[in-house]
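User: Let's play a game. I give you a shape written as tokens, and you guess the letters that built it. Ready? Here's round one.
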């Protein structure tokens, strides 16, 4: 099947080839002659989601003849936003300048405006953003996770499984939605898992769980966004992850 250059670029971006960014589509041209004005809302190698008239619909790639992107909105405003650095005793990470940093003991959350929600219990739930923490070998306590008074570090795989299991105790509907990947964080071996979970605002959310060994224990990061919006934040999340420099 032949594709136009813009459609091929969209499919490659959706598959994560050559980097990923959120594109805003002006016009979707279908092979049956119809055209749809709206906004590109994500997709994969087989289909794209397009928002028009207040509703979002999925179109098979085989239905699409071409997509034209507005020059003024061909890249996400988030990926163009100025980034600033946050640093603590664990790491340094760049994040969009408009996002806020919230500290709770050793735990750090970086989120945009409206990215957190206050629950009836008084705790804050993350809607969009990243939570960062370290599982320490002795007397570890992490927000939302199970404290361990007798904790010895195992392999990265074992500790990742433990972090995931602890997260699931606070989030019973959290599930893996993809295979575990080996990546590099600041040159060090790390693991990345894609998860799905209930979103605090209803529906489902998509999460990345990233773990890496750290002098203070196992550092973990959870990037989260509502499922329908994750593709719009994925490029920013990747940029934040790429910027991480671990404290030595």
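Assistant: Ready! My guess for every position:
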């Amino acid at each position: 099947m032949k594709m136009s250059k813009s459609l091929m670029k969209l499919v490659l971006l959706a598959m994560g080839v050559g980097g990923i960014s959120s594109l805003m589509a002006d016009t979707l041209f279908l092979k049956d002659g119809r055209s749809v004005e709206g906004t590109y809302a994500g997709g994969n190698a087989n289909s794209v989601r397009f928002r028009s008239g207040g509703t979002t619909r999925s179109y098979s790639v085989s239905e699409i003849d071409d997509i034209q992107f507005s020059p003024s909105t061909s890249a996400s405003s988030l990926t163009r936003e100025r980034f600033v650095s946050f640093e603590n005793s664990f790491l340094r990470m760049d994040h969009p300048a408009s996002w806020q940093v919230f500290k709770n003991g050793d735990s750090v959350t970086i989120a945009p405006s409206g990215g957190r929600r206050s629950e009836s219990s008084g705790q804050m739930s993350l809607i969009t953003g990243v939570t960062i923490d370290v599982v320490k070998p002795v007397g570890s306590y992490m927000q939302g996770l199970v404290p361990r008074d007798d904790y010895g570090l195992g392999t990265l795989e074992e500790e990742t499984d433990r972090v995931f299991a602890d997260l699931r105790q606070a989030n019973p509907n959290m599930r893996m939605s993809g295979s575990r990947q080996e990546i590099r964080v600041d040159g060090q071996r790390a693991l990345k898992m894609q998860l799905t979970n209930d979103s605090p605002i209803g529906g489902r959310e998509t999460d990345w769980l990233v773990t890496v060994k750290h002098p203070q224990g196992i550092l973990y990061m959870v990037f989260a966004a509502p499922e329908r919006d994750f593709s719009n934040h994925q490029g920013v999340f990747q940029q934040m992850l790429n910027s991480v420099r671990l404290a030595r």
